[in-house]
Amino acid sequence: MHSRVPDRTTFADIRTALQLLVDRHEALRSTIEPGPLPRQRVNSSGSIVMCVRKLDSAADEQVIDALREVGGQTLDAEHGPTVRADVLTVASIPRWVAIVVHHMFATARTMDVLRDELHHVLSNLRAGTDPQEGLDPAQPLARRIQYERSAQGLLRADRAIRHLSGVIAQMPNVLLPFREHHAPEPVVRQKLRMHSTAVTHAAGIAARRLKVPRYSVVLAAVDVVLSTYAGQDVAWTMYMDKGAVDRGRSLIDCTTQNVYAQVGSRAHQLFSQAVRRAWKQQFVGQVHCDYDYARLLEAHSDVGLDQRAWKSVNLWFNCRGTFRPSVEPDAHRLDGLRRRSRLKWEEVSDDRPLVAVEIRFLRPEACLDLWVGKELILPDDMVDVLQAIEELLVRFAVDGEVSLAEARKHMGAGAWPRPPELRRLRDGRWIDVEATRAVFQNFPGVLAAELEVVDAGPHQELVVTVESTERDITEARLRDHGQQKVRTHGVVLPDTYVVRRAGAGREAASTDERTTRLLCATVAEATGRPHVDAHASYRSQGGSAEQLPWIKMQMESRGIRPFDHECLLAPVSLGAVAQELGR
């Protein structure tokens, strides 16, 4: 970030203003802890390095060259100062201040806050007033970061997606920026042109697969934040595309253009070390690499990969299925969606989701995709990417050969929930066995609840067997406790209920027909539909009515942003995708 210095500003004023900003904002004092999983650490006192660069004149060419040189220097994200400032002087008079910050939230929006505060503090110092007078004591930078991650911020992002879906509906072949910052129009079009072909191609695939108009499939959010950094226009571009539905599976792709090339390069290197460690530990059944992965990582340094070598790295953690790369051309294109659409996906097992990781190192771009089943985890930033990859490796890639404690010891300390036990029925329903069992296990008077899948003609039915003692399950207790339990769990309910009374002494366990009917009636009242229509209703709706709450619960439990998933799935509903999968 750089800002013009007000007239009659001294070097002491600049240092005082910078120290005040560092003291105000905890984010400016965050550094990166090295290790298999780099983490942020907040220093009690931030360190500042201030250098002076002398310019012959205030010509734009000299200023731009100096700013580019400042931004091109490597910033040590582990041990170095948290803030570096270069003061550009002309005839020993400060004219510009260029500030380099290496915290992970350094987007154009937060840097605008710092620029405004720096200018405000310098103006107060020049006027001889209190430098903090007029500043928000609530630390707007931290508040901005907190807001963007809050429910209100996510709701605003969701509204932006809805707004953009309407724009794209009218102009399906054009991507328009939702937000621009100090960017000339040619730069905006140049940055968007890189992705428009991929999104259009993905929309065409989805339209042909689902036989719907193209604009009804593409639901994209484009956040183009353009700012002037190191004397050149750069962009942070993120788009989410509800398209590229190949064989009925949905894709949400995130491409991040790194604004801070040096900091991003260091983060990529740390990430590479984490992935390489996981690779060596043999946590997965198969590892497929399109290229010499070790040699490519050795070539990856703080200066990044050679810009002319547009390489890709595809690292598939195939503990649940296999990907077969296509032999078609265009394998090295930056166009990630087009390449993804040409991958031949083959599922090995129906009862477990697939875990795959694709890594693409492109300088200064970097892209990472984490697949869980047919849904894609969309990380917020590089730190979340590292946490997500560690969590995925521990929760899904450990398949009985390595204990969970051993995996955590190698991948870093942390406590993650137990991976869900998933079963998939022939009609496409994914059953979280433990979550469904817990619903009935928590009913009053229930000793045990077991689930089993029974073949019923061409379909499979989920049967729950509830064991209780006599007179333990009563209508009043079910109404008081049972309905709330059913409502608060977004699980797929069983098709058949069996309530058995536990035997005492020589008496054998027997089926309690009355309590079974009572349980069915309670569940039907709680869910708002008759139990006898449950299975048929699910099949007629393609699974959308039952699966949507469960999918939302699963996505939120994995840390995915709680967008309105009905908005993300509409107008192509989950039922249409499920029916396409069935065909």
Characteristics of this structure?
583 residues; 4 domains; Condensation_dom; 24 strands; Chloramphenicol Acetyltransferase; six-stranded antiparallel β-sheet; Condensation domain-containing protein; CAT-like_dom_sf; catalytic activity; 39% helix; alpha+beta; rod-shaped
Description:
GO terms for molecular function: catalytic activity. It holds the Pfam family Condensation. InterPro entries: CAT-like_dom_sf, Condensation_dom. This is Condensation domain-containing protein. Residues 14-234 form the Condensation domain. By secondary structure, the chain is of the alpha+beta class. The protein folds into 4 domains: 2-142, Chloramphenicol acetyltransferase-like domain (Chloramphenicol Acetyltransferase); 149-253, no CATH class; 255-419, no CATH class; 425-574, no CATH class. The chain is 39% helix and 23% strand. The chain contains 18 helices and 24 strands. Strands 11, 12, 13, 16, 17 and 18 form a 6-stranded antiparallel sheet that branches. A 4-stranded mixed sheet has the order 1-6-5-4, with helices on both faces. Strands 21-22-23-24 form a 4-stranded mixed sheet, covered by helices on one side. Strand 7 (220-229) and strand 8 (232-241) form a beta hairpin. Helix 1 packs across helix 3 (108-127) and helix 10 runs antiparallel to helix 11 (404-411).
* Count of folded domains: 4
Task: Please count the beta strands (DSSP E, at least 2 residues each).
Answer: 24
Shape: rod-shaped
Work out the helicity level.
25-40%
Largest sheet: 6 strands, antiparallel
Ends: how far apart? 54 Å
Structural class by SSE content: alpha+beta
Roughly how many Å is the radius of gyration? 28 Å
Question: How many distinct helices?
Answer: 18
Unreliable stretches, pLDDT < 50, 5 or more residues? 35-39, 103-108, 156-404, 406-420, 531-578
β-sheet strand percentage: 15-25%
- What is the overall pLDDT average? 50
Domain Condensation: 14-234
InterPro entries: CAT-like_dom_sf (IPR023213), Condensation_dom (IPR001242)
Protein name: Condensation domain-containing protein
GO molecular function, one term: catalytic activity
